[in-house]
Each structure stands twice: as structure tokens, then as C-alpha cells.
Amino acid sequence: MCVCNALTDRMLLQAASLIGSTRPSRVYAACGCRLQCGTCVPAVARLLQRQAAETREPSMAAE
Ligand code: FES
Q1: Model pTM?
Q2: Digit-coded pLDDT (tens) for 40-63
Q3: What does DSSP assign to residue 60?
Q4: Chain centre to alpha carbon of residue 63
Q5: Dist CA 4 CA 50 (whole Å)
Q6: What is the pLDDT of residues 26-35, one digit of tens each?
Q7: Domain edges within the chain
Q8: CB 43 within 8 A of CB 1
Q9: Most exposed: 11, 13, 21, 56, by fewest CB within 10 Å?
Q10: Please, are residues 31 and 37 in contact by the beta-carbon 8 Å criterion?
Q11: Which of 40, 47, 48 best tests ligand 1's pocket when mutated (most atoms within 8 Å of CB)?
């Protein structure tokens, strides 16, 4: 998902879960990286926000 830092969506979601934050800059830091070109930020922000929303409102299918 982040080519500059070789971060996958799974790595980003795990880091966000560990630190309890959806702020991309904090998640990158938790991965031991920092933002470089910035191309990935919109997609990463959407991924983290979607995950946070799903965590708050689990799908009915999961019940
Ligand atoms: S693709 Fe993520 S910082 Fe460049």
C-alpha cells in the first residue's frame, strides 16, 4: 500500500490496532517509518477510517 516504505495494508492495520490511532503519521511511526512522497496517504487514511468504523459497528453478518 505504501511503496516508499514497503508497507502492506495488513501491516498498517496491525500497527493502527496496536497503538489505537487512525492518524497515518502515527501509524507510519509505529511501523518504524515516516511519510515520504505522500502518494499513499489518501488510500491509507480511507483504509484506517474504514477499519475504525467496522470496529465501532461490527457487521450484522458477524453475529
Ligand atoms: S507511497 Fe507511501 S510515502 Fe510514498
Answers
A1: 0.83
A2: 999 999 999 998 888 877 655 455
A3: G
A4: 25
A5: 23
A6: 999 999 999 9
A7: 9-57
A8: yes
A9: 56
A10: no
A11: 40
